[in-house]
Amino acid sequence: MSRWNELTGETSGSDYAARFAALSRSGKDVHGEARFCAALVPAGARVLDAGCGTGRVMIRLAELGYDCVGVDRDASMLAVAREQAPSLPWFSHDLTDFQPDRLGIAADFDLVVAAGNIFPLLATGTEATVVERLATALRPGGLLVAGFGLDAAHLPVPPSITLPEYDDYCAAAGLALVDRFATWDADPYEGGGYAVSVHRR
Predict the structure, then answer these.
(1) Which residue has the higher pLDDT, 13 or 195?
(2) In sequence order, what are the beta bridge partners of 68?
(3) What is the mean pLDDT of the segment spanning 79-88?
(4) Cα dihedral value 16, 18, 24, 27, nearest 10
C-alpha cells in the first residue's frame, strides 16, 4: 500500500480539485508546474504526467499545445481528470509497474513530470523502481522533472526520501542531474525543505 493510499484511502479526488479551484478563484497561480515544464521543452513535445491526479498540470500543458498522457492509480483523482478533460488520455496504473507498451503508449516522451510529492508518497522501498520505470519511458535526451518535499513542513507524511537518495536512484536508472530549484518558479536551490530536480536521460 502506498503512503498516499494510507493518507487518503484514495477517495480525495473531489476535495483535492475543490482546494485548487478555490486557490485559483482567489487569484493564486496554480500553474507553476506547467509553466516550468513549458520552459524546458517546446510546444508539441510529448509529456507524461506521472501521478497526474486530477489533471491540473496535464490539462494546462495540453492547453499550451503539448502531447500529454496522464497516469495515476487513484480512481477518485482520475474521475475528476476525466470529467474535466474527457478527450485527453488518462490511464489507471501503478507507477511501480508502469510499462508504456502494455498500455499501448510509445516510450519516447520528451519529458516526464512527477509533481505533487509523488516520490514521498510512494510505498516505502519502491522509489528506485519508479524512477527506473519513468526513465525507460523517456527518449534519449529526455527529461525527468520531480518536485517534492523533504521535511515535515512540506509534506503531509513523515519524510521518506532525501535528495542524495533520489539522485542515486536516478543515476542507477541512467539519468544525470541537470539542475535543481527550490520552487516551480525556478528559484535557486540553496538547501531547504522542497526541491524541484531536473534529470536527463
Answers:
(1) 195
(2) 47
(3) 96
(4) -110
The predicted structure's pLDDT at residue 27? 72
- Closest Cα to residue 175, out of 118, 130, 122, 116? 130
Say which range, 25-34, 85-94, 96-105, 145-154, has the weakest mean pLDDT. 25-34
Burial 154-187 (b: 16+ CB within 10 A, else e): ebeeeebbeeeebbebbeebebeeeeebbebeee
Q: How far apart are CA 31 and CA 61, in angstroms?
A: 9
DSSP string, the chain: --HHHHHHTT--HHHHHHHHHHHHHTT----HHHHHHHTTS-TT-EEEEET-TTSHHHHHHHHTT-EEEEEES-HHHHHHHHHH-TTS-EEE--GGG--GGGGT--S-EEEEEE-SSTGGGSPTT-HHHHHHHHHHTEEEEEEEEEEEE-SGGG-SS-----HHHHHHHHHHTT-EEEEEESSTT-PBP-SSSEEEEEEE-
Cβ proximity of 4 and 121 under 8 Å: yes
Task: Check: pTM over 0.85? Answer yes or no.
Answer: yes
Q: What is the Cα–Cα distance from 141 to 191, expressed in whole angstroms? A: 27
